[in-house]
Amino acid sequence: MAWHLSESQRVFGELALPDELADAARLERWLIEHGARERTLLIPKNHVLQHGPLRKVAALDEAAIRLDQIRALAGLLSLEEVAAEFARLELLAQIAIFGLFEGALGDARAALMQRTGVEP
């Protein structure tokens, strides 16, 4: 049941995002999952193109640029600024953002538990 809820949040969350941000979100999720599963931080671009969610070079490049922009912006903004901007978003966009973070946190938790040998 929890998996179905998580998947619906992910799918509907991505639908609420503009296409370029949805591609970035899918790429980030895949990179995190793949990196945790393969226990690596380095994934060649050709491998991402063959096995990842984006199969066209232009789409992959744009999504990677978006991820870099989001990370850079996050580094510049204070917590108060982020909270104020988040409060200005429509409810559906807020839910989409929470769904992205929830999925990434769950993936990180599962990878850490697997690595330490702890059973859920």
Comma- or semicolon-separated keywords:
120 residues, mainly alpha, globular
Structural features, described:
This protein has 120 residues and is mainly alpha-helical. The protein has one domain. Helix content is 82%, strand content 0%. It is built from 6 helices and no strands. Helix 1 crosses helix 6. The longest helix is centred in the last third of the chain and has 26 residues. The model has no long low-confidence stretch (mean pLDDT 79).
Topology:
Blueprint: H1 2-16, H2 19-38, H3 45-51, H4 57-76, H5 79-88, H6 91-116
Gist?
The protein is mostly helical and 120 residues long. It is 82% helix and 0% strand.
Q: Which ranges are low-confidence, i.e. pLDDT below 50, for 5 or more consecutive residues? A: none
Tertiary shape: globular
Biggest sheet architecture: none
Relative strand content: under 5%
As a whole number of angstroms, the C-alpha radius of gyration is 15 Å
Tally of helical runs: 6
Tell me the number of strands: 0
Structural class: mainly alpha
- What is the string of helix and strand elements? HHHHHH
Tell me, rounded to a whole number, the average pLDDT. Answer: 79
How many separate domains make up the residues? Answer: 1
Distance between the termini: 16 Å
Helix content: over 70%
